[in-house]
Write a structure and sequence with these properties.
single chain; alpha+beta; globular; three-stranded antiparallel β-sheet; Protein Transport Mog1p, Chain A; six-stranded antiparallel β-sheet
């Protein structure tokens, strides 16, 4: 009798393989177990400084422009002499040289202002004989230029009496020089400036010499606040 063949034992089922963890997408922030992003693992990009730098540059340019405009307004805007020839009472037509040219030797640190020097002139051809700096940079502006011209003393005096009121100056006084001074005629004029000060010019005209020349001076000074 044949021996029965024992039945083969069933093999144990293999355990299912665990699914592999999905890889994190490139460029994303790592996420902690609770779903929050770990601050230490954040990726930061440095902030560009181009924007703030351009803003600072723009502000600097704006400040410079405002400063230039304010300076121009403060010193006055009338820089060019508007009258180039004047006819005085005796009928003589006198060509003029702007004070900005004739008196440039006394200009310092923006003074006298443009709206003062630009509204002052001397007879064309006048020669400078002397320049005096009375303020020495230590007080209100006060400087004098002395000229010599071929016009008579009366013509020079009439020239300034006629010209300066047309340029915005007001006659404040006229007469003879102070006692002890050389004879002649003194005429004082006053004008307000865009620099918030009043300015005065004193035209002193000496008698005409026997050679037919006349010496005259223009003293230009800034008046104190209370004048």
């Amino acid at each position: 009798m044949s021996t029965p063949t024992p039945a083969s034992e069933p093999s144990e089922p293999s355990e299912p393989s665990e699914p592999s963890e999905p890889s994190e997408p490139s460029g994303t922030d790592p996420v902690a177990d609770d779903g929050a992003v770990d601050p230490e693992d954040r990726l930061f990009e440095p902030m560009s400084i181009r924007g703030p730098a351009l803003v600072v540059l723009g502000l600097a340019v704006f400040i410079v422009v405002v400063g230039v405009v304010a300076s121009a307004l403060a010193s006055g805007s009338d820089t060019t002499l508007s009258i180039h020839k004047i006819t005085i009472p005796d009928g003589t037509s006198v060509p003029l040289t702007p004070a900005a040219t004739a008196m440039k030797s006394i200009v310092s640190a923006g003074e006298p202002p443009a709206d003062i020097l630009g509204n002052l002139a001397v007879p064309a051809g006048s020669a400078i004989t002397r320049t005096e700096n009375s303020d020495q940079g230590a007080s209100q502006f006060d400087r004098t230029v002395t000229f010599r011209t071929g016009l008579s003393a009366d013509q020079v005096a009439d020239l300034y009496r006629t010209l300066l009121p047309r340029l915005g100056w007001k006659v404040t006084d006229q007469g003879s020089p102070a006692t002890g001074s050389a004879p002649g005629t003194v005429i004082l004029f006053k004008k307000g400036s865009g620099d918030s000060f009043y300015w005065e010019v004193g035209a002193t005209v000496s008698p005409t010499t026997v050679t037919g020349t006349t010496t005259f001076s223009l003293e230009l000074f800034e008046l104190p606040d209370d004048n």
